[in-house]
Amino acid sequence: MLNDSRKITRRGIIKSGATAAGVVALGPRWRGGIASARSSDRFRLLRVGITSYSVRKMSLDDAIKATRRLGLSYISLKDFHLPMNSTTGQRREVAEKIRQAGLTLMGCGVVYMKNDEGQIRNAFEYARDVEAPTIVASPDPEAIAIVDRMVKEFNIKVAIHNHGPEDKHYPVPESVAKAVDRYDPRIGLCIDIEHTIRAGVDPAREIRKYASRLYELHYKDVDKAAPGGKTIEAGRGVIDLPAVLRALLDIRFQYHVALEYEKDENDPLPGMAESIGYTRGILAVM
After folding, report:
1. Is 164 in contact with 194 (CB distance < 8 Å)?
2. Spans of all domains in the chain
3. N or C: which end of the chain has fewer CB within 10 A?
């Protein structure tokens, strides 16, 4: 059952006319009246964007166009759109293409890191070459000491991603926090709110608890708070997204709030647009 604050938020969204269906129909030109009245920024200064994994079946050019169609300005790259074995020149070319499209590259990943200094160094060189401030990663626990050295050398943050009950190393944010506690504070967390709730943990609480080392958030909804839960359009699932967004606002989150939409990989834009529209509606009436 939804809590009272989420019921009120949903009612307010409907009254404001910012229903998910309307957003999908109107696309990025939609401007909620309440949002315009309350703030010149429709995301209340949150840096809402996408992981390019959400549009993994698209070319890089189409991924960029899709991000702009959604009315977003931020993106994190997955290696579908720029392979990890790319050259420095190729990386710089892609980064420039993203900038010329009016997007800000917030990071890359998820990058899986073995206990291999050469592989980890390549990941940091990749991030350096595209000028990404953060690597979202899933390193082997024994590799974190190498990651720590690279963070000091390259001055690039690493946000370790929790992958839910199936992840033997990092099922929940606390798993990451314990693993990185004694290392450089630039090694922190990417909280995936779907995987967090599937492991039985409240994502809004975790956002507040680990605010000082939270460097990316993977934003989505899920159909059930259980290991078999699947990604669903934001607002149709079980995550208390108003509480998540309130926590991000309260901690003044400055990093990427990245929509990671895993559903409908062959035609993700309608569901992504619905998710973004619902999010804007929450923020408009909050």
Report:
1. yes
2. 4-285
3. N
